[in-house]
Amino acid sequence: MRICKLGEDVLRQKCVPVESNEVNDELRATLNEMFETMISADGVGLAAPQVGISKRFFVVISDDNVRRVFINPEIIKTSAENSEYEEGCLSLPGVSEKIVRPVKISVSAIDENGKRFVLDDVDGLLARIIQHENDHLNGILYIDRGDEEFKNKTVELFKKKAERAQKKLAEKEAKKRSLEAKLAAKNAKKGK
């Protein structure tokens, strides 16, 4: 699966809930593919919009090495106590920033088999990952929760990267068309 990068519209959309009839083998296959993509990218969480799907689900493997699936998650409680932690994101490779989030959360969600579950008083890395991935489902990126100047610089950086990639692609296409035209002219000469 291709991981969408900052600047792609799908990352800023509020995702739609997954219907109960959509929790099926097709969704489970997508979830497995997301786990594979996340692991190969050295990530700890991956939300559906990050792979171009505007639906409310994400996958997580925290420091306890347990594969967790959250479908239609709702954070139902957060602690008053906050902590700061350096966050990164597979959709913003190469940048990170210290972000303040609640230390503990309780979350309700549906698993890959359609069963509702609640995780109470989750803390540590898992709590942070759940909050980060849940933000993705609402079109929020971690840079929206940090320093405004850092956010603006990061947005500009990714905009320039996208422009360079677009320019390279256009140059490649122009070169290809030029070669095709030369080949066609050569073949036309041979035909005379």
Polypeptide structure, described:
There is one protein chain. By secondary structure, the protein is an alpha+beta fold. The protein folds into 2 domains: 9-146, Peptide deformylase (Peptide Deformylase); 148-192. Helix content is 38%, strand content 23%. The protein has 3 helices and 7 strands; from the N terminus they run αβββββββαα. It has helices spanning 25-40, 124-136, 148-191; strands at 45-47, 57-61, 67-78, 82-87, 97-102, 105-110, 116-122. The strands form 2 sheets. Strands 1-2-3-6-7 form a 5-stranded antiparallel beta sheet, with helices on both faces. Strands 4-5 form a two-stranded antiparallel ribbon. A hairpin with a 5-residue loop joins strand 2 and strand 3 (67-78). It is globular, with a radius of gyration of 21 Å. The model has no long low-confidence stretch (mean pLDDT 94).
